[in-house]
Design brief:
CATH architecture: 3-Layer(aba) Sandwich
InterPro entries: AB_hydrolase_fold, BD-FAE-like_dom, GDXG_lipolytic_enzyme
Radius of gyration: 19 Å
Keywords: Carbohydrate metabolism, Glycosidase, Hydrolase, Polysaccharide degradation, Signal, Xylan degradation
CATH class: Alpha Beta
CATH superfamily: Alpha/Beta hydrolase fold, catalytic domain
Distance between the termini: 52 Å
Structural class: alpha/beta
GO molecular function, one term: hydrolase activity, acting on glycosyl bonds
Pfam families: BD-FAE
Protein name: Putative xylanase
Number of strands: 11
CATH topology: Rossmann fold
Low-confidence stretches: 4-19
Amino acid sequence: MKQFVLVLSFIFIMGALSAQNQSIIMDIYQGEIPFQKISQVKEVSEVDGITRISNVQTPQIQVFLPAKSSATGQAVIICPGGGYGILAYDWEGTDIAKWLNSHGIAGIVLKYRLPSAVTQTSPHLVPMSDGQQAIRLVRHHAEEWNIDPEKIGIMGFSAGGHLASTLGTHFDSGNPGADDPIQHQSSRPDFMILGYPVISFNKTFTHIGSRNNLIGENPEAKWVNYFSNEEQIRADTPPTFIFHSQDDTGVPVKHSLMFYQGLVEKNIPAEMHLYPLGKHGYALSINKEGTQKDWPKSCINWLQHLE
């Protein structure tokens, strides 16, 4: 009898753990996808230590919810990096969502479309459109997912940090007259978390691959300015947590410094952690040397003290 009870207990525990690790995958658009052309291009997923996704045709969110007993009500929509050419989907996506879950925070990975003149009519607007829609969609499902609709943040790494900072500087309050109730929701994130982000498209120090992929090799000046997010900070840009390493040669630390300075000038609460080492692309910095591995702890502390 005792052995039978132990077996039942084991099954219950494993079932609970399995349920907690399950995710919800949802298309972000129901119906027509904005700026999308009809094409034969197919999504590609390659695994070589990191899962890299390219040619995204159907943008989706993958929702990881914490146990209700530990849920804080906060949710973070995560934009993986990859230079607007690929998505480092697990390294800077699902791994981050699961880490957030361990702290009672909903982690929602955005599989956004990457700019392509072959499959899109206005490639430079596509990632931003997908991000804004994802924020509206999560707000729409907030009650169902045990999320506070006023505690939905955006997070991004590298080029994903550019997208996240774009969403934190380009947003609207929604359209209450729209037929689609999702469009009633605001696209403003309540906070931002930016990891070694691309911020500026100033050619002298930008990440040229991200810039070229989003706005082209010979862009109009208006789009360079529009997507140089240090120039787009608003009075209602949300509180922001930033981390970056000084030895980052891929995306110079100047990007974060300029964005932080702009936030301070607008009296927007901001916390920035700069590390002497770390280089670029370290995500959770697991099994890495250096003080940059402390950023997750600092970030959780910041989230716990957000007003």
